[in-house]
Design a protein that fits this description.
The protein is mainly beta and 733 residues long. It has a domain at 31-232: Immunoglobulin-like (Sandwich), CATH 2.60.40.1190. The strands form four sheets. It has a 26-stranded antiparallel sheet that branches. A hairpin with a 5-residue loop joins strand 7 (126-131) and strand 8. The protein is globular. The model is unreliable at 7-24 (pLDDT under 50).
Length: 733
């Protein structure tokens, strides 16, 4: 263990010396105006042309680095209270793709533009605002330098105004963003700004800076400086109150003690308080998440717990402060553990209601970022669930250009008044992470060391450790990753589905960029993964050979061959009605998969993924299909379908697993949305209906009606039903 840590420190020292300096950011000088904007989407006020203009965009796709076919113009100005942004997107004609009228749309496959602001100039975190020709808006946050898709979130909501206009061979838009709704250092002299545009008519993606296509378009290493004519400031006093009231009818047909419809109701709310210009305090009392969409189900053939993303609003905002420690499979803090517990009498997942919560998060200055979260849950003696208090505290210090070091502390205290033999009195984890990235992100990596603490005396290591280093240029991507999790490492509030292992995981990918009208880029890849337990016995080994092709018309074709060896360390039940595969048994199996994704600009788009091979002691065939038809701009109909067939010999049974999930998304206007989601899953014997009506009657204020219905797939007898209504309103004080 300690030799591994010394090796990690040596690698980090070597990596730190390899940091590559990027070009100096260009500057946009922005003048102040005393003129109030006429918000009509037309760029005609005089102040737009007096300062803050950027017209030189670069193609990101398909011809990286070249000028776009049709230019994009950005204009900036500001007053004492507001930031003004003007956008003019030239185009071939007025035939634009706008899939729906829903806020917080996805950018791919449609016409839109996104503006990013790094208000603390740290290259690690930013906010963004986006719009399209129909004036549909989105806003959100980008964290961890914007190098991974998971660091992009539209969960952040705030009050701002925009308007779009469609002219002859162009569309334009104007933004009015109150400084009071933003977080930045007092008396800021400059921010950093980035932008990217999707042009469906030419099938081009362009960016405000020349971003290499081996980096993501949200990479914060490539931004311009936005220099203010005079320092901007604001009052730190900014308070918002968001109360809610909800009520409904529920019926659980599987509960023998409930033979009738039950009524339910709740009152609570949230508050957002600007403690300083950079720090925000979020409070919640009796939070209600009834409007949250149900999880997308998956076919589960894994030996270990499957990750499901957090969907509750309170935990999503600023989540990167706590969730980015470790990695996706060794994460010391996973917010879905809060408020969701296991019924120890039946082993099922049940709700552990949240009573109150608070989160202080944000920037102290350009170098220091902090987060403190505390949640209190209710006691449920009937189900042997104590009252828990959860705490997560994180601090992050910027180093060099885009690197940082962070410390996290996670704690769960059992505050029960009754005897519980299931839950520890406490569970704690402390962790140190070092995130490193060169200024142009050619090199990036992470090292972490975490330790858990529980009341019981442990006999094995309580540490978790990892090191990841990646190098990327125009031709090749090379990565090294190794991990260690001790047998007694116990992060009960984290996501660590596997313990007692060492792992090494190198990978390499070559990316060819031919000059032709058919293929944009293509290339092979190789990945190797080896798991051993703590006595270095090989338990898992996998080889992956891949080939990926991206075409100029935005379609993709991927091939993967995977060969796997497994030595079972525990008995494994592939499916609930099959005999156990016994610990100590060895298996060699393989799979071949193809995936084709069509052009998402078309009204009908799809992705198809057939898989052939073996799986443990079974012959395997799987077929995954995702298809979407849009009737723009009023919505879409989508279908997710997964079929798996495991062919086995006696005493095992050949099994067919079917998962079908149609989804209907209707946007009647920019304020009224209806979503209906069906899921048929015979693996868990459940058919689910989830329908949501949302009326955004005022900025960041909503009225929801949510209907949920669950049936058995065998006979379609009812399991439970619920009809819930929820009203919330945002008051700015």
């Amino acid at each position: 263990m300690y030799n591994t840590i010394r090796l990690t420190l040596s690698c980090l020292l070597l990596l730190s010396t390899c940091i590559v300096l990027a070009q100096t950011a260009e500057q946009i000088h922005v003048k102040k105006t005393q003129v109030d904007i006429q918000l009509d989407g037309i760029i005609d006020e005089d102040f737009w042309f007096e300062s803050g203009i950027s017209k030189d965009f670069f193609q990101y796709f398909p011809d990286n680095g070249k000028a776009p076919t049709y230019p994009t113009e950005l204009y900036f100005s500001f007053t004492e209270e507001n930031l003004y942004v003007g956008i003019k997107c030239h185009s071939r004609d007025d035939d634009y793709i706008v899939p729906s009228l829903r806020r917080d749309y996805q950018a791919g496959g449609s016409d839109n533009i996104t503006i990013m602001f790094d208000t603390f100039n740290d290259g690690a975190n930013c906010i963004f605002f986006g719009t399209n020709p129909e004036g549909i808006v989105r806003e959100g946050t980008i964290s961890n330098g914007g190098t991974e898709g998971s660091d992009f979130s539209t969960a952040w909501d705030n009050k701002w105004k925009s308007k779009s206009y469609k002219g002859e061979k162009f569309w334009s838009s104007e933004f009015v963003i109150p400084f009071s709704s933003l977080r930045f250092k007092a008396d800021s002299k400059k921010w950093r700004v980035g932008a990217y545009r999707f042009d469906s008519q030419t099938n081009e993606i362009s960016t405000i800076m020349d971003v290499p296509n081996n980096q993501g378009i949200t990479n914060l290493a490539f931004m311009k400086d936005l220099v203010w004519e005079e320092p901007i400031s604001k009052s730190s006093r900014n308070i918002s109150i968001i109360p809610f009231i909800s009520g409904g009818l529920v019926r659980d047909f599987e509960d023998p003690n409930q033979d009738d419809i039950q009524s339910t109701g709740s009152i609570g709310g949230d508050a957002k308080i600007a403690v300083t210009t950079g720090l925000n305090l979020d409070l919640t009392v009796n939070p209600d998440f009834s409007q949250v969409e149900v999880d997308r189900q998956v076919t589960d053939l894994d030996r270990f717990e499957i990750f499901l993303p957090e969907r509750r609003q309170f935990f999503i905002e600023n989540a990167d402060l706590f969730n980015s420690f470790g990695n996706s499979r060794i994460n010391p803090f996973f917010s879905r553990r809060i408020g969701i517990a296991t019924d120890t009498t039946e082993g099922t997942r049940i709700e552990n209601p949240l009573l109150v919560g608070a989160r202080l998060s944000g920037k102290i200055n350009n170098d220091w970022r902090v987060g403190l979260l505390n949640i209190q849950t209710a006691e449920d003696e009937q189900n042997d669930l104590p009252s828990f208090n959860y705490t997560a505290a994180a601090v992050q210090r910027k180093l060099f250009a885009n690197s940082s070091v962070g410390l996290i502390f996670v704690n769960r205290d059992n505050l029960t008044d009754f005897e519980s033999e299931t839950f520890d009195d406490y569970n704690r984890v402390i962790g140190l992470d070092y995130n490193i990235a060169s200024k142009d992100n050619t090199w990036n990596g992470k090292a972490f060391l975490h330790r858990s603490f529980t009341p019981e005396e442990k006999t094995e290591a309580e540490f978790a450790h990892g090191l990841e280093i990646n190098y990327t240029n125009d031709l090749i991507q090379v990565g090294w990753n190794h991990q260690y999790v001790g047998g007694d490492y116990d992060a009960q509030i984290g996501f660590v589905p596997r313990t007692n292992f060492y792992r090494i995981n190198p990978d390499v990918r070559v990316n060819f960029q031919p000059s032709n009208d058919v293929i944009n880029q293509h290339g092979p890849g190789f990945e190797y993964s080896l798991f051993t337990n703590n006595d270095f016995t090989r338990t898992d080994e996998r080889y992956d050979l891949t080939y990926q092709v991206q075409f100029q018309n935005n379609t993709r074709l991927n091939f993967r061959y995977q060969n796997t060896y497994t030595l079972l360390t525990d008995d494994f039940e592939i499916l609930s009605d099959q005999p156990l595969l016994l610990a100590g048994t060895e298996f060699n199996y393989y799979e071949v998969r193809f995936q084709y994704r069509s052009d998402r600009r078309k009204p009908f788009s799809y992705s198809i993924n057939p898989i052939f091979g073996t799986f443990f002691n079974a012959d395997l065939f799987r077929l995954n299909l995702d298809a979407t038809y849009r009737f723009q701009p009023f919505g879409s109909i989508a279908l997710q379908a997964n079929y798996s067939r495991l062919s086995l010999e006696a005493p095992f049974k050949t099994t067919n697993i079917i998962l079908i999930g149609p989804r209907i998304d209707v946007t009647l206007s920019k304020k009224i949305f209806i979503t209906t989601f069906f899921q048929f899953n015979n693996q868990i014997d459940n058919f689910n209906i989830n329908a949501r009506f949302q009326w955004r009657f005022a900025p960041v204020s909503d009225f929801f009606i949510v209907y949920t219905d669950n049936y058995n797939t065998d006979g379609f007898t009812s399991r439970n039903k619920a009809l819930i209504a929820k009203f919330s309103y945002w008051f700015s004080l």
